[in-house]
Amino acid sequence: MKFPEYRSLLKPESADAALPFMIHSIHKMRAEVAAHNMFPHKQRYVEIIWIIKGGGTLVMDLDKFTLQDNSIFCVTPGQLHQLKENEQTEGYIISFNEAFLHMGDQDFDLMYNSGLFQTFSRSAGIRLDDDIAEEMQEITLKMLKESNNTYLFKTEMLRRYLKIFLIYVARQFQGPMQTLMQTRNLELTEKFKSLVETHFKTHRKVADYAKLLAVTPNYLNEIIKKTTAYPASHHIRQRIVLEAKRRIAYSDECMKEVAWHLGFSDIAHFSKFFKNATGTTFTEFKKECLVLTTG
């Protein structure tokens, strides 16, 4: 393998190892951040990368983004990424797991399930307005200070500050977020996408997800096509293809190994599936990826 399957900044030897939240200053932890991002990697928690000033690149799956002042990115669990920042870069990395958002707070559940993180993570990052960035900086400094103290209700304070921080982020998506939260159709769509993210290796039929969502396959297809312009089967297929592309681009695995990882027992079936979905063969795509991985 060229990349570690999972790499974590949440060090087990830390006194706060049990706390499912951490915040770091890029400037003060430059060596640790560089070591953490030595290779493209995945992780089991949400990571928000806020670049206040400086430059560099961020690879997310097969896309490479140029870092700009006051740009902010969201890396979701399982998303392949690699951050390369220059020595002048300043900013913060906020890491937290999903459980931290669901500690009895229905508002957090609403923000998570409504599609904020899905929309955020699928975007090419966002540029923050100067006024909002200034207020977010104040909240961030409060989180840094709170994370270093030993007072009562530390977790609760951090969770509240994080909630305020995320509300500011959501305001940058005000238009699309209002649309997402106004319709049940979009709520169903996001639940479907979340289930696909979890079960795509074992559940390949629309009926599998319809059963989990307690709706009929025809209804699920209708809603998904209405909200995304593509049927549910397209999203299942594309998620499988994305994982295949990740492993082709960032590992030395052969086609048989990739097929096995994705639950295909017949290599010929996988080869046909990949060609039909991408328009190119496994070998041709692997050659194309050499440009990205060696660039």
Automatic annotation (TrEMBL):
Q: Which GO terms describe its molecular function?
A: DNA-binding transcription factor activity; sequence-specific DNA binding
Question: Which keywords fit this entry according to its UniProt record?
Answer: DNA-binding, Transcription, Transcription regulation
Q: Does the keyword Metal-binding apply?
A: no
Q: Which domain of life is it from?
A: Bacteria
Read off the InterPro entries from this record: Homeodomain-like_sf, HTH-like, HTH_AraC, RmlC-like_jellyroll
Residues in domain HTH araC/xylS-type?
Answer: 190-288
Pfam families listed in its UniProt record? HTH_18
Q: List, alphabetically, the Gene3D superfamilies matched.
A: Homeodomain-like, Jelly Rolls
Presence of the UniProt keyword Cytoplasm in the record? no
This protein is called AraC-type DNA-binding protein
What organism does the record attribute this protein to? Answer: Chitinophaga filiformis
